[in-house]
Amino acid sequence: MKRGERRAESPPARVLVVDDEPDIRELLELTLLRMGLGVEAVGTIGAAKEQLRDGHFNLCLTDMRLPDGEGLELVRHIAALPTDVPVAVITAYGSAENAVAALKAGAFDYVSKPVGLEQVRALVRSALSLPARGEPASEAQSLLGESPPLRAVRGTIAKLARTQAPVYISGESGSGKELAARLIHVNGARRERPFVPVNCGAIPEPLMESEFFGYRKGAFTGADQDRDGFFQAANGGTLFLDEVADLPLAMQVKLLRAIQEKRVRQVGATQEEPVDVRIISATHQVLSALVNAGRFRQDLFYRLNVIELKMPPLRECREDIPLIAAAIVERLGRQGGRSGARLAPDAAAELARYGFPGNVRELENILERALALSALDEIGVADLSLDPLAEVEPGSAESLLQYLDGVERRAILEALTKTGFNRTAAAKILGITFRALRYRMQRLGIRGPDPGGRAA
Questions:
Q1: What is the pTM of this model?
Q2: Which CATH number fits domain 14-128: 2.40.50.140, 3.30.930.10, 3.40.630.30, 3.40.50.2300?
Q3: First and final CA of the chain: distance in angstroms?
Q4: Could you report the per-residue pLDDT of 89-120, keeping only the tens digit for each?
Q5: Residue 183: which of 175, 195, 172, 165 has the closest Cα?
Q6: CB 272 within 8 A of CB 264
Q7: Contacts for 77-85 with beta carbons within 8 Å, 24 or more apart?
């Protein structure tokens, strides 16, 4: 650039505002203009479609109720376009159903009436900071594997990263639920803000409210200074609630209000404070079954489970096991000063035959133990010390199902034995409903005790 020349400035981002109320339309237009954005404001879906056809926009902000249709129609219309325009919807106060429907239809986020301008500004900044579609995450945050289940998971994660919808991640223990949550975060608009993981089952019940929402000095004995909670720590970012099924009912009520109102009150405070947090939750339990059993609130379940992401167990991605194992060995070797560590071909083949009831977490533990005990850089079959009961031949689904049925049968019989074959008490121990236990007993051929006191 020559001296005296001015650097060409990129044009401001453009926002399409769709609202049939002139006052709200003008208020939003002025707010966005003061943020240095270009604005087109219209009052109908038809006019909005014309603007989208003729011009380029970086964000669409639309009311849910319009004279010629529902805002959801516009959300679906934009989702079907080849462009990449995030859509935020304005919903009536307390209309949680509309907000959830919009998020499921592909909306980026929502704001409720009466419209709070600071909330609108935060939403707009977040939407405009979305990374370009297809922009890769860091190598440290990756989900390895080319099997169909893992390719499908990666595709879903890419879509979820471009919304602010609450996500519920289901899957067995050790299947990578926290990694999936981190990938959603680092590929989304909040990637520069905190990711705060919380193990809900590890917090003592009396401390839950203060841990989640913080407390004021003097709120209780030992509160010698103000302290922020998880919500404040994650403000602007993502709060990952792992093992959310372990939350007691009283805390579920408070969490539901915080999610709905986007406000929290510290213990000992008189006023609520706004928080801007995306919620991602996970558990290895079946939340819908807990709802049916009365152990998890149905309204909270619907707020958390806007979009579900199912993580496949490792046994369904058997072809990826050698690749995943090699990457783990390389990482562990690098961390332990053994950068030449590798997995022998026969050891990789042996791992591919293993059932992995503990999934990727078990694979990592096996390899960490093998690397620690092996005197050589190459890990062989003998170093793995695999449980022969969990080995299955590739593709032998019947053997795997037999193994899993055996594990389930032993767990049920152990619970029945502890309770003297009281099925109601056994179901409580197992964390399932009485009906679910009865079904599993019938499927596995478990009957009541015979006259000698043994299970049939």
A1: 0.76
A2: 3.40.50.2300
A3: 87
A4: 998 755 677 788 888 888 998 888 888 888 89
A5: 195
A6: yes
A7: 77/45, 77/49, 77/52, 78/52, 78/106, 79/105, 79/106, 81/52, 83/52, 83/56, 84/133, 85/52, 85/57, 85/58, 85/59, 85/60
